[in-house]
């Protein structure tokens, strides 16, 4: 499996609108090869953390190059202070219980 872990620096007062945008933009849309995605709001505040999991690097890259994904990213950026930081790589072990 392959994917990305990313940070989200959400503008003050934009948490609820950010979540609504994310929910509406992804409703009924599961990119080919996507296995899971999560967004965490840390207890200690600060930037939120996201995780995306794909079946392969190819599926991840195909999603990143999809025009619909670029459109969703543009909508999400309206709620962020800056572009996310991305860490891409292979997941070497894990489990969803």
TrEMBL record:
Pfam family of the protein (one): ABM
Could you tell me which residue ranges the ABM domain spans? 1-61
Instruction: Please identify the protein, giving its name as recorded.
Output: ABM domain-containing protein
Query: Which taxonomic lineage does the organism of this UniProt entry have?
Result: unclassified sequences, metagenomes, ecological metagenomes
């Amino acid at each position: 499996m392959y994917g990305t872990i990313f940070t989200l620096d959400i503008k003050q007062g934009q948490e609820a609108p950010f979540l609504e945008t994310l929910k509406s933009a992804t409703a009924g849309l599961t990119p080919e090869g996507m296995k899971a995605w999560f967004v965490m709001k840390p207890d200690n505040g600060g930037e939120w953390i996201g995780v995306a999991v794909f079946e392969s690097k190819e599926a991840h890259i195909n999603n990143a190059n999809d025009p619909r994904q670029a459109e969703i990213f543009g909508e999400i950026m309206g709620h962020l202070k800056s572009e996310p930081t991305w860490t891409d790589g292979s997941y070497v072990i894990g489990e969803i219980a």
